[in-house]
Amino acid sequence: MQAAVVKEFGKPWTLEEIPVPTAELLGVHDILIKVAVASFCHTDMMVLNGLFHEAPSGLAGS
After folding, report:
1. Which of 11, 22, 23, 39 has its CA 20 to 30 A from that of 29?
2. Which InterPro entries match (predicted)?
3. Is residue 59 a contact partner of residue 46, using CB atoms and an 8 Å limit?
4. What is the pTM of this model?
């Protein structure tokens, strides 16, 4: 699947192919959903620019 990936704050995001999670990798409290469309909002831009310093690294989309 494709994912917009932020690897470092203040750097451009990249569009990458990442493996689709399989049922074997899901925990008992996890679900796997199919997403047809996603958006990039103001909050995503704030994370990309490092304004949410408590955000974990390696975020994939939102």
Report:
1. 39
2. GroES-like_sf (IPR011032)
3. no
4. 0.50
